[in-house]
């Protein structure tokens, strides 16, 4: 019975698609992926995988899928090493300039990517830096650390964001999200007009018109 169960288990593993992971992922994600793939290699290091090692792994394994980031170039040479058994590519990045899209289309290999993955975090950090700068937050932290608390009537007053005007160069997804976050403080918005698009609630200007 044990031998029979072991054979069934190995047979089920063999049927799973072969996944090569070129980036360091948390264990919980590896566990999730292991339910759907047979992971032939996980590059569990912070530095980028070397090209020579990547090609060697592809040559030694029947790779059906590759998970990677913008630091890995997916070009014709790599695709030729993969052969006809590569079925899908997935990059953890907003852009895909590092992928030879035309070559992938010729080989009918679909590409997954993460176009909006950084929108909220970038907008959050932009508003956080705006607050830190206007309210002299870093300066205040240094004063506390140095125990140099010499209070006076204007001590660390900074500038209120209310009724301030901020300018945003380009009003794409991240720029629009920054506006949403800054509007909470009652700011007026100006944007550098990069195209003919109209956005209600914002005053379009050109960089040469800044005051």
Automatic annotation (TrEMBL):
Q: What is this protein called?
A: D-isomer specific 2-hydroxyacid dehydrogenase catalytic domain-containing protein
Alphabetical list of InterPro entries matching this protein: D-isomer_2-hydroxyacid_DH, D-isomer_2_OHA_DH_cat_dom
Residue ranges annotated as transmembrane are none
One molecular function GO term is: glyoxylate reductase (NADPH) activity
Boundaries of every D-isomer specific 2-hydroxyacid dehydrogenase catalytic domain copy: 24-143
User: What UniProt keywords are attached to this protein's entry?
Assistant: Oxidoreductase
* GO CC field: cytosol
